[in-house]
Amino acid sequence: SSQTEWWKKSVVYQIYPKSFNDTNGDGIGDLPGIIEKLDYLKTLGIDVIWLSPVYDSPQEDNGYDIRDYKKIDDLFGDMNDLERLLEEAHNRDMKLVMDLVVNHTSDEHKWFVESSKSKDNPYRDYYIWKDGKENGEPPTNWNSIFSGSTWEYDERTEQYYLHLFATKQPDLNWENPKLREDIYEMMKFWLDKGMDGFRMDVINFISKDPSYPDGEHGDGSPHFMNGPRIHEFLQEMNEEVLSKYDIMTVGEMPGASPEEAKAYTDPAHDELNMIFTFEHMDLDSENGDKWDVKPLDLVDLKENFEKWQTSLHGVGWNSLYWNNHDQPRIVSRFGNDGEFREKSAKMLATCLHMMQGTPYIYQGEELGMTNVHFDSLDEYRDIELKNMYEEKRALGWSHERIMEAIYIKGRDNARTPMQWDRSENAGFTEGDPWIKVNPGYTHINAEQALGQEDSIFYYYQQLIQLRKEKEVITEGSFELLLREHPQLFAYQRVGDKEDLVVCCNFSDQTVEVPDQDLIQSVKGGEVVITNVDSPERDRLSPYESVVYSIEK
Ligand code: TEU
Ligand code: CA
């Protein structure tokens, strides 16, 4: 294939367009707003922009419910704006990757409008329709990720259709070769325009167990995650489309293990370049329920990263992320968004960016944006948490407990407007923002960061630059150090010409470095990057991180 693996040395910046920058005063971010900020992104030093969906959509799930794959939603602008964004990004030697949402469409997509008309409509089998059970129950007992059943009954044709997510997000039937061909044609439409690749939404959900069995306690995920034909479909997609372009692909894969990730990302398999795992994002959830929050055990986090780093070394490739539009802000989640906000944000960035893989920075992460705390439910926008509220209330959860879970884990934590400056609405819009701005914008904003020489922004700039300079970061192996230490995350990257030793204090305590070997090994090392003025080799202050280089 014509792939040159350029993405192994790239840093990706994810833009959630609705919340990035509004230029026409409707309170919604738009494509001209992104073009306006390309120089800001170039200053940061990023190589690739991943653009969350801007396609025509009723916005039930903020664009992850697509009505027309080849039309730009009027909210964001038009095709000229998108082509101008692509051109302006390329002019600045940055690449643009689109979000491919092909596990499902909107129920307003013309395919579904046709499919739901009658059982013998030519588009009927573009979606997954089934008779209910004899006893009047839906075809399976699966729970939707957005609460309720994954089946919606349609009176007109007296069948149910499958929707793993919202009712307005019917799942596409990938068993249908005509559907697959239409998807591949659409992908070529975008790649022929010069797009540099795709982030693929829940792409490991597209192959379902054809027998549609019930799940344990309504958990259908063993029957739609990493399904029986998933590798066949991805290899066909690669054969028909991906292999023909020099692009980057990253598959979003809830429930994928390192073993499965090897199968998806081994170049010999001709499938995808890398995947997003969710394992490290589930470590503060009880029984797999993200809303049933438990404190993070740092040893769990360390061993999870070790598993992924060592499993994919030399056979596949990792993505590296703390944040995206579905996750709460990392400085509030695993750092400290109070007195140690700046220091812990830099520590977390160091911990992630010194690993092997392609790092992803989510808009505002480079400013240390924090979680938001709206007082009432109606200030929130996300369908996932609104549906969850009703479901948990019915299960007897108190209002307070649910609101607490929303503060800690809600996706709207990531979706409040990007904070550009301290003017009204953080410079995001002249109008009324579609979602309220996080009140922290008065001291957390890009203008302030650009004016502070030791800001989180400039620290990210250094980390990104290091990746270009030090081959050990992209090529070296990973060895976990101080495995059992409850506060220190320390690891070694072993290269040909140099080793790196990365030490991160995930606590608000000063911590002695217990391991004489570790101290010995960093003794002669030079400090590559740190978030304190003068690191001491045998102890770390609260949220201190330091990276040593040891010449070989
Ligand atoms: O997310 C996949 C997914 O499962 C997430 O919704 C995640 O499990 C959940 O949000 C945990 O909070 C993708 C998109 O990233 C997400 O924005 C969409 O809502 C979803 O698919 C449906 O397209
Ligand atoms: Ca706008």
TrEMBL record:
Keywords: Glycosidase, Hydrolase. GO terms for biological process: oligosaccharide catabolic process. This is oligo-1,6-glucosidase. It is found in: Cytoplasm. Pfam families: Alpha-amylase (PF00128). The keyword Nucleotide-binding does not apply. Its EC number is 3.2.1.10. GO terms for cellular component: cytoplasm. Residues 14-415 form the Glycosyl hydrolase family 13 catalytic domain. Belongs to the glycosyl hydrolase 13 family. GO terms for molecular function: alpha-amylase activity; oligo-1,6-glucosidase activity. Its main location: cytoplasm. It comes from the Bacteria. It catalyses: Hydrolysis of (1->6)-alpha-D-glucosidic linkages in some oligosaccharides produced from starch and glycogen by alpha-amylase, and in isomaltose.
